[in-house]
């Protein structure tokens, strides 16, 4: 081969291998107000049902350094009905956080260690849409899992360079349903022909088993001083929380449960964030007028009003254009969907057994809890993980102990059979990477590497 021909041929090879990212139609040139960065970002739609015109919206951030060598991490927020882009990417573990007119860098962004893929699911959530309104009616876990699998398969066609990457599926809250159910479908698909390299799953404050998770709330409230002894007694014997929720979603709340819940709500106060019992709440703008006259110096580095900032930012026309996003069937972007009619009785489907089957298939599982969350408290989660380990006959391989981030205790951990891990993130809310970004990053990094959490500083 002549030198000139070789040069042309090697250029062709280079162009072909570079094409998927550099010339990708979903590539984001730059987000409004964004600081300069070296990594690439993409966002857009993947059609999951041509007939119903169902399209799921994604935001993909390549790893900061050497993306091809890094794993691919799919992140799903829960709700059901809340946006993974709005919550996960822009307030938890993505590269930026909105602040007034600009985006600030998140120095503990998970794309320091992985290629991060955020998905708004199911349709009707965030920028995801369907032109047939019937797609929003009675969406359930089964439909969501199937759509998520179709999304992944089609996304890999658009980004073939990541097809063989190690895939970790992560998420929090109701993603305790989404993640195991999607992982389960991938396992079934791979049995016919291995096409997705599923390597592990991680779940934060997840709903795994309705009654255990919900009924651990009463003890959490009581032990943190949010309710009185007498209210604790009726909240555990008269009407427990799972009974109330079960009645609520069947439109049949009993007089007893109604009375108990009004007691609980009155004592625990609406000025305490149930997702983080120690964090101050974001005072609505009506109440914050006085703060403009006499600004309150808040030493907290956590922006408790971040949700308002995200809503403002993602409703900007220039931002939507940069993201290749559009509003279909809604007037404005919302953190959690107002048009989705999810089958809330699916809350009661236990997913802990699916996690058991994933472990049996050799898929490593990390389940972690922000320890300031009263919505899905660590006590219920820890009980469920321990019980599952016992059922699977897994021995404790890392005894219950502290782990460190820097010179401080980051939380506690226990590992079973080197495959099923439980961890807490000290001082973290329901959305651990939002309230404890540094500690959550350490947890994430050790999970990806398959190493135990740091035992010393």
Automatic annotation (TrEMBL):
It is an enzyme of class 3 (hydrolase). SUPFAM superfamilies: alpha/beta-Hydrolases. GO terms for biological process: proteolysis. Keywords: Carboxypeptidase, Disulfide bond, Glycoprotein, Hydrolase, Protease, Secreted, Signal. It is found in: Secreted. PROSITE patterns: CARBOXYPEPT_SER_SER. GO terms for cellular component: extracellular region. Gene3D superfamilies: 3.40.50.11320, 6.10.250.940, alpha/beta hydrolase. It comes from the Eukaryota. InterPro entries: AB_hydrolase_fold, Peptidase_S10, Ser_caboxypep_ser_AS. One of its GO terms (molecular function) is serine-type carboxypeptidase activity. Its EC number is 3.4.16.-. Pfam families: Peptidase_S10. Residues 1-18 form the signal peptide. Belongs to the peptidase S10 family. Probable carboxypeptidase. This is Carboxypeptidase.
